[in-house]
């Protein structure tokens, strides 16, 4: 079942069904228990009334059973023999004795005669008659059974109460209360539940289906738009965002944000490929021209120019490869590096620079960071190359501690960078001086590479006005822990 709507509807229906069945069973149990308690009370009252009359030595023939026409009554003696049954009782079960006919000998021996009462009335308390009998105050025993009264068989709830006559004879009175009301009520409630449950479940399933369908309608719109974007490859399109503030609206906003990032990434990649192709075309064309001229006129070969073009092509290819690795998520190394020594070593290898570089590092200080030596050397080298191109007569680099990290600052006394261009210069293939020749100005990748490497090392690279009037590029890296 692949439909979320169907799964939700079936799940909700099953949960409601289980809950209703459990609640229905509980209701039936409570109802049956209450009705049984009522039947127990009715049976106990009838049994105690008969037992009370027997305790007063009332003869069986004179027992008042007018209120118990539909209630069977059976009286047994200590040996379990039936000594009395109510009128119309033809069969009984559940009382311990199935008999419905009194045993004559037991009846004669257990029943006081009316004449005794008369003698006692004449003789008074001193005549020597036994004392009045009593009814047991213990809780009666209850049992389920059946009885046939006047030809009608029915289920009853029986209560057993003991009574002791004045002669000391113990009789047990079994009186029954009909269970017809209980069974009728339980059957009625059960029938109503069985009839209403399917209807209620159908309503729950339908409502859940409709609500889920309405809730998932925006998701279907998002899916269709994403399918259209995939088919058209038009990353400028966006999925519809519902007006609600629920999870689906947040999903739509997140999807659009992802599409925006993806669009920017693709655009950046396209510009990168176009710019790289353009940058590579110039040195390749220049080198080819020189080689073709040399082939036709060997004496006109510009060997230094060919070497310069080849070097420039090699540097550009190396920069492009490094950017490709960085874009692919290459992580920096984990080597511990001393920044001061790294800067001194890089400066010492730049003997052919147009302007001598001044190094400012405190003696004996250790500025250790963690990262890739080759990438950090490339950052320092790119910053020094940039300063060499713009400086009038000063290029200085300093290393110092700064806010829990290490700050490397490269300064020059050139024209500086305008405030509005201080972020733009870190974009790829951006060169602020369009009048410069590409041979002098480079491809515009050095600062972009430097910032990217700094960021991947957990640091920053920013540009500020230098005290000498030019630009001061500040590289900050966290200290090694």
Outline the structure in words.
The structure is a single chain. It is rod-shaped and about 155 Å long. The protein folds into 3 domains: 4-186; 235-330, Helix Hairpins; 332-478, Heat Shock Protein 90 (2-Layer Sandwich), CATH 3.30.565. Strands 1, 2, 3, 4, 5, 6 and 7 form a 7-stranded antiparallel sheet that branches. It has helices spanning 4-55, 104-110, 114-123, 180-232, 247-296, 303-327, 339-348, 373-390, 438-441, 446-456; strands spanning 73-76, 82-85, 89-93, 134-135, 141-149, 152-164, 170-178, 335-338, 357-361, 368-371, 395-402, 405-412, 460-465, 471-478. Mean pLDDT is 84; it is low at 105-130 and 434-439. It is an alpha+beta fold. Helices cover 50% and strands 19% of the residues.
List the quaternary state of the chains: single chain
Share of helix among residues? 40-55%
Q: Beta-strand level of the residues, as a percent range?
A: 15-25%
- The average pLDDT is 84
Distance between the amino and carboxyl termini: 55 Å
Counting structural domains, the number is 3
Q: What's the count of strands?
A: 14
Tally of separate helices: 10
Radius of gyration (Å):
54 Å
N-to-C SSE string, H for helix and E for strand? HEEEHHEEEEHHHEHEEHEEHHEE
Q: Class by helix and strand content?
A: alpha+beta
